[in-house]
Prior knowledge:
The complex is a heterodimer. Chain A has helices at 11-19, 23-45, 48-65, 75-96, 101-108, 122-130, 135-146, 151-158, 162-194. Chain A has two domains: 1-109, RNA polymerase sigma factor, region 2, helix turn helix motif (Rna Polymerase Sigma Factor, Chain: A, Orthogonal Bundle), CATH 1.10.1740.10; 111-195, Winged helix-like DNA-binding domain superfamily/Winged helix DNA-binding domain (Arc Repressor Mutant, subunit A, Orthogonal Bundle), CATH 1.10.10. Chain A is built from nine helices and no strands. In chain A, helix 4 (75-96) packs across helix 8 and helix 6 packs across helix 9. By secondary structure, chain A is mainly alpha-helical. By secondary structure, chain B is mainly α. Chain B folds into two domains: 3-41, no CATH class; 54-128, no CATH class. The radius of gyration of chain B is 31 Å and the shape is elongated. The mean pLDDT of chain B is 73.
Amino acid sequence: MASHDRASVEDHQAIPLAAAGDQRAFAVLIGRYKHMVYTVVQRVLRNDMDAEEASQDVFVKAYQQLGEFNGTGKFSTWLYSIAFRTAISTLRRRKEHPTSVDDLASTLHEPSDEPRLFINDRKDLLEWALARIPAEDAALLTMYHLEEMSIEEIVTVTELGASNVKVRLHRGRKKLAELLHLHLREETWTLSTNG
Amino acid sequence: MDAEHERVRADDPLRVLFHDVGHLRGPVDLETNVLSRLAEHAAVVTPAPPLLSKRSWYVLSAFGLVILGLAFKLSTPSYSGIGTMHGLQLPNVTAFFNSPWALTAMASIVFLLALDRFLGGLKQNSSAI
C-alpha cells in the first residue's frame, strides 16, 4: 500500500488487504468511515468520551471480523451494524453500571423538552432535538435521513423487525418535528418581544 | 421504493436538515488510537476451518468402524470362510490391530483431529462476539 494515495484506494481493494493484516489499508477505511461511525455512536451515547471509545471499539471489532465480511452487501452497511450494536451494548452497560456522575445523572432524569434559547446553528438545533428522543430512534432517523438507507438496510443493521423500524421512524420523525417547531416558535416569540 | 416515494423523501425538510448538518466530526486521532490498540491486541482473527469437515468425519468414522468390525471378526477363532476374500492376509491384519503402537497412533490421530475441530469451533464463536 506504500505508494497508494488514500483517496484513490477503493473499498474493494482496501478490504482484502486489511483482512490480510495490512494496517495501512485499514487506516484508509478508518479515515473514510470514521465520521459516519462516530455520528451514529454519538447519537446513541450522547457523550463525546464514550463515543470516542466506542468508535475505537467498532473499528477494532471490524478489523478482527474482516475475514467474515463476504462482500455481498455494502461495507458501510456491515460496518454500520457493528457500530449500532456496539453503541447499544455500551449504552445498556452504562445504564446497568453507571461509572460516572454524568452516567448516573442521565439515568435519573431525561433531558427536558423545554426549548433552549440561543441555539447557534442548525447543527446544535438538530443535536438538541435528537437528544430528546430515544437513543435508538435517533440512530434510526440518522440512518434513514442522513445515510439514506432503505427500511430493508435498517432492518439488516439493527436486527429489528421491519414493522418495528417503521413505527420507530414514524414516532421519531413526529417527535423531532414537534421539538423543532417548538424551538422555532419560541425563537420567533423571543424575536418579536425583543423587537 | 418507488420514484414518488423517493421524490417525497428527497423533499422532506427533516432529510434536508440532516444533510445540511452532515456527519459529526470524528476524533482526528482515531486512526492512530485504533492502530495502536490493534498493535497491542495482535492480529486479525480469521477462523481457520477444521482439517476435517463434518462429512469427512462421518465417512472416516464409518470406514473405521467397518475396518474395526472386520478386524474383530477376522480375529475371532470361530470365524472361517472369509480368509481368502479380497486377498486379506489374516495374520497381518489381526497383528496390526493387536499392536498397542498401532492403537495408540490411531487414537492419537482421532484425538488431535477432534481437538482441532473443537478449537476451530471455539475460535469461530469468539470471533462472532
